[in-house]
Design goal:
Layout (H helix, E strand, L loop, with lengths): L11 H15 L6 H22 L1 H23 L4 H20 L3 H23 L5 H5 L7 H28 L2 H22 L1 H6 L7
């Protein structure tokens, strides 16, 4: 119990519960995991089907519209714009636009290389300055110790660089259709598999959420 300027005593535990309740009410809304997955994978699936039926240029235009639509839906539901999807959307629009204007599929093929390399470089840069930025992205999903965030961030940075190299190898040595298949049936399963392989690390370095 506490006394404030002669006022009636106030239960500090009650204050704490009230504060937590307000924080819960004002917390930023989170997307349903299945809806988030649909918004993440939907544009890529549309890209694949559009390429199968109409070619790479129609697929590129479809992909651009779908990415922006997914971003708009995410903002409408959460009133916030995550950094990674925003950066991805900007690069998709820029390189997709160049693909359509110059009628050259090279730009849309290079786009994943730039995105993966950029994410990898940002994560490494964060580690250099002792700021494991992956923690900022996944903070609402995982609670890890500082060492856990550093190790997980390093692993994802290396994975992004590996994807950048792999994308360069595939698009330079295969047809456009094979490259599109690789994006859908190669990169997506690899990413899920890599994420699943991090579960032991998540368990080992799990930390209780800060009160």
């Amino acid at each position: 119990m506490i006394q404030v300027n002669g006022s009636p005593a106030v239960d500090d535990k009650r204050i704490g519960r009230s504060y937590i309740a307000r924080m819960t009410v004002t917390a930023k809304p989170q997307l349903n995991p299945f809806l988030k997955m649909a918004l993440d994978l939907g544009p890529l699936i549309l890209f694949f089907f559009a390429n199968s039926h109409y070619g790479i240029f129609v697929a590129t235009a479809t992909f651009m519209v779908a990415v922006l639509a997914a971003l708009a839906v995410s903002y409408a539901l959460t009133r916030q714009l995550p950094i990674m999807p925003v950066v991805t959307a900007i690069i998709v629009v820029v390189f997709g636009g160049l693909t359509l204007v110059l009628h050259d599929a090279t730009f849309i093929k290079v786009k994943p290389t730039i995105i993966y390399a950029l994410f990898g470089a940002v994560l490494i840069g964060g580690l250099v300055f002792n700021k494991p930025l992956l923690g900022v992205v996944f903070d609402s999903l995982f609670h890890l110790t500082a060492e856990g965030w550093r190790k997980l961030t390093l692993r994802w940075a290396i994975f992004f660089f590996a994807l950048a190299i792999l994308n360069e190898i595939v698009w330079r040595n295969t047809s456009t259709d094979v490259w599109v298949d690789f994006k859908v049936f190669g990169v997506v399963p690899l990413t899920f598999l890599f994420g699943a392989l991090q579960i032991p690390l998540l368990r080992k370095y799990a930390a209780e959420p800060a009160e």
